[in-house]
Amino acid sequence: MPSIILGGFEISLIRESVYWWDGGAFFGVVPKTLWSRKIESDELNRIPAGFNCYLIRTGEHTILVETGGGDKPDARYRQRARMAPQTPPMPEVIARHGYDPEAVDIVINSHLHWDHCGGNTILTGNGARAAFPRARYFASRGEWEHAHERLARDAVSYIDTNYDPLVDSGQMTLVDGDCQVAPGVWMRRAPGHNRDMMVITAASGGKVFCFLADLVPTAAHVQPTWVTAFDLFPVETIETKNTWLAEAAEGEWVCGFAHDTEMAFAHIVVNPKTRFSAVPL
Ligand SMILES: [Zn+2]
Fold this sequence. Notes:
8 helices, about 30% strand, about 20% helix
């Protein structure tokens, strides 16, 4: 999996695994005649989606952004999503990528949908335990409160064993809005997908990496109006995308997407026809 050096930071894509989900759901009101030019679907109209996590090594800290889908989905769900029968624990995934999982001292979740924080914990006969016992975990308080509202629209996206044991033990810090979790590394609120989703920026030596989370789940979604059907506030997603992608283009940021299976790192460039496009590094 690819890595880049950005100022004094090393940033690596860690793809936990891949699932396949309905292409129509991923592209909302965009017709298949258009999105099928960007991503090929299988016979059940599903497209591949990576569980993309990024490891940021700052010299002082080893920061894991997202933890994948984890071990909670049952056999039926795995079959529906064309997932492997089992997902290895996140520390094992990191070791397979050539990094020391013991070094992870900070874990950040952009939001608490199961496909972003599933590897936070590992199920045991005695309940769920932290996958990274010595790490401090960070998530948004508003998102955690929303998860517990159990609204009909999105309750299915939340599995409490991915975060509640960490909140109960004090290992997870719930942040109120924008927060610097380590020197140069920020979680910043980017509403649209849901109210309190965060994007993660890491700046060093005048260069910026930005994990766009589900604001831009794949490179095809850089076109601001291409919004997933999952988004609770699609109109706000478009506004938030316009703001963030303009900044990314202007600052020549390196960006990462939550679910793209092809493009690990990309620059955002202004495109007169679609407003923005993604150029792989
Ligand atoms: Zn997602």
